[in-house]
Amino acid sequence: MNKYLVIFEEIEQAIRNGKYAPNSILPSENELAERYDTSRETIRKALNILAQKGYIQKLRGKGSLVLDMQKLQFPISGLVSFKELAEKMGSSSVTHIESFAKKVPTAVLQKEMNLKKDEPIWEVSRIREINKEKIILDKDYIVERFVPGLTKEICSHSIFDYIEKDLKLKIGFARKEFTVEIPTEEDYRLLDLEGFQAIVVVKNYIYFENAILFQYTESRHRPDKFRFVDFARRNE
Question: pTM score, two decimals?
Answer without folding.
Answer: 0.66
